[in-house]
Amino acid sequence: MCQLLGMNCNTPTDIVFSFEGFRLRGGLTDSHADGFGIAFFEGKGVRLYHDDKPSASSPVADLIKTYQIKSENVIAHIRKATQGEVNLANTHPFVRELWGEYWVFAHNGNLRDFHPAIGEFYRPVGNTDSERAFCFILEQLRQRFTEKPAESVLMQHIACLVKEIRAHGLFNLLMSNGDLMFAHASTLLHYIVRKAPFGEAVLLDDDINIDFAAVTTPNDRVAVIATLPLTTNECWQQIAVNELVCLREGEVVFSDAPEPKQFMSIDEGLCIARSVGAAGACD
Amino acid sequence: MCQLLGMNCNTPTDIVFSFEGFRLRGGLTDSHADGFGIAFFEGKGVRLYHDDKPSASSPVADLIKTYQIKSENVIAHIRKATQGEVNLANTHPFVRELWGEYWVFAHNGNLRDFHPAIGEFYRPVGNTDSERAFCFILEQLRQRFTEKPAESVLMQHIACLVKEIRAHGLFNLLMSNGDLMFAHASTLLHYIVRKAPFGEAVLLDDDINIDFAAVTTPNDRVAVIATLPLTTNECWQQIAVNELVCLREGEVVFSDAPEPKQFMSIDEGLCIARSVGAAGACD
After folding, report:
1. Which Gene3D superfamilies match (chains A, B) (predicted)?
2. In total, how many domains does chain A have?
């Protein structure tokens, strides 16, 4: 299974600490060795880095570590390809413009029989189910709204579209327009909101710790979202099965989930991921 | 004035030699020190690197040197900002999807009173005249053709749109869909086609030379396009004033120019660029 990493905060923050743990899962501490991609919003612009090398050993990932780009919204994806070739057009995250804003999307999972009609406004360039799903969401939003609707309307519509797509299979996603960060779980997705008083965190995948109090101000609020928790000594919240949450400035501002909420165990989630992989689909 | 660099070839080729000379103009041998961007097509995908640091000293540019990405179509841009802030949303090249293909665009020059109506399909994210021109071209193509038209029709339509836009001012551009490379000159744009028998080339901006015979096969054909010639010992062809050329696999396949062709001297071109800069516009 591929893995997702996201960050949403109220002040430009570098993601190096979380990314260091995350990238090691691409070929070193785990087997997601078929490339990676990361998108950083800076204002309305997006800085996008893709590489088809494993993230653990990629020179592009090394650059991200040394460059320490600060961003309020980041989406990263490491890939374990089980179908199709490893090529750039199929590498997440994907980017499109809608209503004069860039939208960024990454997915893990597998959608069966998901072949919506060719869009009037958005078409996939590669051949993944993921890019089809992203284009479908944007197409439906643009068909319905010539101009960006009120935020509550936007969130409700995205929730409806996500429900429609997940009927086709596993649909763990991260999507952002540089302001809002949407996260939806079919299986595993966790998040943590770090705010004052900041403490120390210890990476699960590497012998690294950080004292956030030394690198933040008391007003900072930083949400990190990842397929699996990245640190050992913090309490990560799990997103429920079929729950969509939306964050802004590091806090959850919208949630849509079936009641009662159900949470998948990590073992079960990984087992499903492996069986999806064995069935030949993870994009 | 900003500077442009493009490459179009019949086999994936690394642009490191040309890029090394070009990037030094971003802050070292010339004063284009307000960031740069470069887009590499790989198949249908695009690898895009932007940086708001001067290209001569950018760690992203260092990565491009060491990584030696091979591509059949490359567009790079270094910026001398004279209006507006230096931010990511305003950094060339710009990318959009049209007919299921990524299109990449970079511009130098200055368009006056160019404010087309808001597009149905494409809208700018930043606030440069350049991105407005790119979105206008794509919008008009998409409005006219739901599906990609025959190539000759496409080229003629792009030639018409370029004529319409250049009535507003200086419009030196590079644009590619990963197959065709369009180049239009209002002032200065030069190109060279390298093919067998390959010789040695010496960079104008650095003490570097290369023996292309050692790094190519006899079938390779590589066109390099740049605002100003990059080498001292090769014969670069100048694109005429108001000429649009289109290249594929390293050779010119279409040209549209007023007769008789007029060629601007480098001194005159640089003088115009400086006066445009002084008037406060170069995006």
Report:
1. Glutamine Phosphoribosylpyrophosphate, subunit 1, domain 1
2. 1
